[in-house]
Amino acid sequence: MPDLEWAHGADGREWALDAACGKGIGPGPDDFHAKSRAKREATARFCVSHCAVRLQCLEDAMRIEAVCGSRFGVYGGYTAAGRDELARQRQRMAAVLESTDGVR
Question: Is 11 within the bounds of a domain?
Fold first, then answer.
């Protein structure tokens, strides 16, 4: 769950103003960082189906996590484990694209 400053569109994140979590729709703030895997997964499922800006949220989280190197909570409808897998898939795809660069 984003902190209050983030949820109000600070730092170029105006899209966050349309986030379901920032409007108090759906899961509560604690659900985004719950210890229970089932609770985190239910929160992720809600975000996938109800949040208008989940892709922006996901990309923002992936960008920040690439720099800080740690993942936690639910962002963009993905749990930390889901974002780990997505990051690995993106790295593999980048390696394939790099290895085939200029080959036609």
Answer: yes
